[in-house]
Amino acid sequence: MWPMLTAGCNRGSSHAPENEDAHSPFGDRLAELRRQIYRNTDTVFEKALFYKPLDGSAPDEIIKLAPLIVQEVDGSQPVDASFKLAGPTVYYESKTVRVGDQDQNAMVFSWRHGNDVQFRDRAIRMTLGDDGFPVIFETNVNSDSQLRILFVSKSFEEAAAAGNAAVLPERQFLIETSVDNAPHVVVARVIEDGPMPMGPFVYLSRDNSSFTTLICRCMPSQARQFVETAYYELRPASDSNEPPSSKFPFDLDAPAKILRIPQSPKRD
Question: What's the whole-model pTM score?
Answer without folding.
Answer: 0.85
